[in-house]
C-alpha cells in the first residue's frame, strides 16, 4: 500500500512514513494510492467478528505489510481493551428508524479514542524500531487533545505539544488535558480560536528548522491518515449489524473538520451499502453552505455549545476534493489556498456529485438545546450537544425512513455541562476513573496567537529534554 499527496508534488510514501509525518511535504494530505474494495461475501463473513477482529481485517488492508499481522492484531486488541462496553461502539435504538452509535466508551469519553489509542501504539512500534525521537504537535477544539495525551503519554520516544483555544473548550475538556502529568507533556492555550491553532500547526509542519537536531514533527490531528483509517472501522461495525436485513443504512455525523464523515465516505467507496451521509454542523456551517448552495468560504468563527465543531477551515475536506476533482491536484491546491481570499465554487456537475453523496444541515444553539430536551423526553436518551446536532440533522434530512438512520454519538454528555443545563436537564456524573477530575492540579501555558511564540516555547522545552 502506497500513499500519495492531494497536492501531487510529493513522492509516494509508505504507511510507516505517513504515520510518522502526517502532512505531506508539499502541504497536502496523504490518501491511499488505491482504495481497497470489500465484496459482499467479505462483508457477510465479517458479520460475526468482534470489534477488534473487524478492525484488524479493515486496518490490515491499509497497513500493507508494514507491521506483521500478529503485532498489528495485538496493538488493535490492546487499543480497545479499556473501552467500557463489550461492543466497543454499541448501537442504541431510539425510536422508529433512528439509532445512535455510542462512540464515547473509551478512556476520554469521545470518539477520538478510537483512533488515538491505536496511533499511540503505532508510534511506539515504529519509533522503537528506528530508535528515533519525535515531537507531536496537535491542535484541538476540545476532544483530540485529551485523547492524544491518553493514547500517547506512555510513548518513550515522544514529546507532546497540544494547542487548544484559550477559554473556548468546556471545563471538562480542558481539565482532561491540563491534569495529565509527565515531563513529555505540554498543554498550550493559544489566545485565539481553533482555526488559529490549526494554522499554527500547519505552518510549523511546513518549516521544521526550529526543532533541535534529530527531532521531527508528528501529527495527531486528523490530517494524519492513521486517524481516518481507524474511524472507517466503526462504519463497518454499524452497517454489518443490519446487513441482510436492510438494503443499506444511513449515517448522520456531527462534523467540523470533515474527518469523521470522510471516513464514512471511504467506507461507502470500499463497498459498505450506505444510502445517505448527512453532514451535521453547528452555526459554524462552512460545510453546510457548500452542500446546500455551492458556496465555500470563511465567515467569522462563533463560539457555540458544541465547541468541538467550532471550526471554519475543514482540513479533511481537501481529501474529498481530490476525489471530486478527479485527482486533479492543481485544482485541489488552488481551491484550498483560495479559501483565504475568495468564495469558492465548483461546477454544477461536481456539485451534483457531491450532493449525491452528502446531505447537510446546520443546527444553532437554541435548536441544539431543544433537541437535547425533546430526545430525552421522548426516549430517555441524554445526548451531548454534538450528538444533538446529528440527531436534528437526521430528523431534517432523512429521505428513506424504511432503513436505519444511525447518528454518531461522539461524546459523553457529562463533558458539556453548560449545554445540558441550558436544555433544562440534570448533568450526569463523570465515570469512576474521572470522578476526581475537578480536584486534580492543572498545568498549562498560555501563549499569544503567534507561530513564533509556539516555536520558541517548543524549542526551549525540547532542548531541556534532549
Can you describe this structure in just a few lines?
With 466 residues, the chain is α/β, with parallel strands linked by helices.
Kindly describe this structure.
This protein is an alpha/beta fold and 466 residues long. The chain has a domain at 85-109 and 225-422: Rossmann fold, CATH 3.40.50. Helices cover 43% and strands 14% of the residues. The protein has helices at residues 15-19, 40-46, 51-63, 69-81, 112-130, 143-152, 171-178, 194-206, 225-242, 259-270, 286-293, 317-324, 329-337, 348-357, 365-379, 385-397, 417-422, 451-465, and strands at residues 3-5, 30-32, 91-95, 98-102, 134-139, 158-165, 185-190, 217-219, 249-254, 274-281, 358-362, 405-409, 445-447. A 6-stranded mixed beta sheet has the order 3-4-12-9-10-11, with helices on both faces. Strands 8-5-6-7-13 form a 5-stranded parallel beta sheet, with helices on both faces. Helix 5 (112-130) runs parallel beside helix 6 (143-152), helix 5 packs across helix 9 and helix 9 (225-242) packs across helix 10. The longest helix has 19 residues, at 112-130. The radius of gyration is 21 Å and the shape is globular.
